[in-house]
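To assess whether the prediction recovers the assembly geometry, we first specified each molecular entity separately, as shown.
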Amino acid sequence: MLLNYFKIAFRNLLKSKGFSLINIIGLSIGMASAILIMLWINDEVSYDQFHEKKDRIYEAWNRNTYDGQLSAWNTTPKVLAKTMQQDFPELEKTVRVNWPSNFLMTVGEKSVMISGNIVDSGFLQVFSFPVLKGDAATALYDNSSIVITRKLALKLFGTEDAIGKNIKIDTRDNFTVSAILKDLPTNSRFNFEFLVPWSYLRKTGGDDEYWGNNSTQTYALLKPNTNLEAVQTKMKGLRKKYDKDEPKGEFFLYPIKRWRLYSNFENGKESGGLIEYVKIFSLIAVFILLIACINFMNLSTARSEKRAKEVGIRKVIGAMKANLIGQFLGESILISFLAGILALFLVQLSLPAFNNLTNKTLAIQFTDPVFWAMFLGFILVTGIIAGSYPAFYLSSFKPTSVLKGTFKKVNAVVTPRKMLVVVQFSFAIMLILSTIVVSKQLKYAQDRHSGYAKDNLVYHFTTGDIEKNYQLIKQELLSSGVAKSVTKTSAPLTQGWSNSWGFQWAGKPADDKTIFDRFCADEDLVTTAGLQLVQGRDFDLEKFPTDSLGILLNESAVKAMGLKDPIGAQIGDNGEQWHVVGVFKDFILQSPFYPTKPMVVEGAKAWFNVIHFKLNGQNNTAANLKKAESIFKKYNPNYPFEYKFIDEEYAHKFQNEQKIAKLSGLFAALTIFISCLGLFGLATYMTATRVKEIGVRKVLGASVGSITGLLSKDFIKLVLIAFVIASPISWWAMDSWLKNYPYRTAIEWYLFLITGVLALFIALVTVSFQAIKAAISNPVNSLRSE
Amino acid sequence: MIKITNLEKIYRTEEVETVALNKLSFEVKEGEFVAVMGPSGCGKSTLLNILGLLDDPDAGSFLFNGIEVAKFNERKRADLRKHNIGFVFQSFNLIDELTVFENVELPLIYTGVKTAERKRIVEEALDKMQIMHRRNHYPQQLSGGQQQRVAVARAVVNNPKLILADEPTGNLDSSNGNEVMQLLTDLNEQGTTIVMVTHSEHDARYSHRVIRMLDGQTVMENLMA
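The predicted structure of the complete assembly is given in tokenized form:
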């Protein structure tokens, strides 16, 4: 029987090539989109889920009240891990992971800058990163041991065995390779190429036991069958017990399974995160697939007359309804299978571009039987969804009417087919509007004035001897004409690395915990960055040597501190008294979607990591950079010249939103394409069934325009209904999305107008092609054929 | 074999109520060849649909081989139909996408006959209908007479006890029509009961008995010589 079904299915496919093509192409695009989204979702939900002990791994988080708001964050004091280990018998291990470090690694003549982590020795016993060579249990217990990835081993040692070999870090410290790890999976929060033991941080002066310095990440591995609640209660009381300055603060443990998707906190409580996008994209995947399935449903039921006779005959000679349902489902599964194969090709073709768009390295696991099982399941489910309605619809025909020719299509005001077209276009309209709003929000933030001059502004980290030779480098950059001005800062101008509520000034209320961004610059910050001074002056160590303890404030800081006459005001921080020398207009240090925060820029007595220099715009940029490189190489010969342009770094702030805009645009375009494919098929069929009517109307004097209108108006009505349904839903969805951004654009009425007109235009073009073709055909032909 | 008593069928639309069968009663014995005649709209086709278990009556009794089938559900009707009844239509009603062989094979598929057995039975039926040489052709490649022979082959392939023919020669020229009527006569002589709806007095002459209908009722019964 199955063979008979497939035989008929194949012959029907070949007989109606046009419709088959529309069905297969539409379904394959829908399936390919769904597969791409599923690959993305699978990657997101699998983040850090490969660790064998994942059910017992937790990250320590802080919770405290500032400005009346509970805040939660995941940097902790370095002393926390040791304290937890000693106070909580429930813990098997605690490990710290310091911020990624960029080290110059030298092996013989070879030197490369590599990023990795300084970690506690138990790191590889908590987290499961497969060890290719060496012993995970002991690899980090020797102070001079280093664990490297296979990629780094190849980079430094080629194909030689790296175990036991020496690596020099930052031209001074020798380490011995104790283990080689398999290259890290991309679906992990960790992205290191080496691990060195915590003792190195101690040796280089980076370690401390100060409870107020929340500067590292602390992880805990619970013993099996531990009562988590009991540990959480103890965690809560740790600050009270040890932190004299901040006894009201709390710690809590946050499970590994929620790190990636749920770790946004609002007022101290989880408030979502990437999971929102996982949900949205899951919904989009389901809808795109559904839209493609709707094409199949619509075209199958529209062509029902062609199959009615067959249904009647089969019923007469003994087919049960179930037999027929099975047959029609078999047909849709066959089409779904063909579409699935095509979809795999499409996915494989589009993966590089999709990976580029999503910044991932997704791939189809062709050798994994689980993938094939899921793929076949996917085909089956798609086939059943697409075929279910037509199967029930077609199998319910009564042989007495179909074989006598009294069978008539339903032409009611509301038919399932019309409803399905409305569903398709509603979704397409929602996606169009979403794309427009996301793009508008992006443009809105991009157009926001950053508060500084980004062009020709370059920065370089103070690697190796740069700090030592800073004055010489600065002088030569200026005297050679490469740079117009140079400043040394604590962080790049596009990143906030430090903040504090501990600043002291006259009149500060006792309970004030306003958080200020802390930035440091030696001199010429205002000139180099192009900040706008509103009061006072820039740092100038030559004229005012006391500027080493000077401070610049932004306008928000002046307001937050309530300073009526800020210049000369004394501000205490880190045990020093600083004096305000200038006030500048706020600039965007962090997110352009958020309001600027109060900001304090401390003078030369502070700490520095970065050099910013403004290239001389009168020279060619490439020549400037070449000269700059020779200057840096002269004074910092062992390290590569790795500069970054501030404007490019600033543009990265929009990456996420750009990605969303591109993805929603892509899926909107695909949805429209699939919907139009279906509409085109329907219009073709509907026009074909009205050939005689068109002929008669033309003979009676109807114009091409009136016939085109007659054939198009039904579809246009459906698109208008879809617009009415989709508009409030889109408004609600995009209004909710925009609420994530304090600095946001508005959803104006004209956006709806644009979307509606666009959807209508697209539908009209799709439908009227067939309508016009029918309207201009010679009526004699259609009437003769009758 | 067939006994219907006071059979009623009424078609209702919003505006009109049409009585298709009005307390119709008659009997068909096993091995009989009965022709049903009457003007268009007299209820012939409705009767045939009910006899073929494609439709159910609104009232009355329908005994098939002594079993009351008037209230059978869809599943039981389909089951009874596929084992006992063959159909021949005016417009042949072959499936265009299947070859001659596959069309004839279809009833056997639904009754669950094994492939090898099916092949044997179909070939036998095609042979009997002298259409074997066309086994791999599609219906649209055949003449009307050939198509009806295929339809008859399909109707008899399951060895049904009853064949219902709805104007089987209506779309054929006289020579092909005669051939088909001869086929039906042969089948009847081999023991198959036949009920045939026809407008043709010529075709009716092949039967043993003619039931004449008007407005859903039997108005006359003639025994043929």
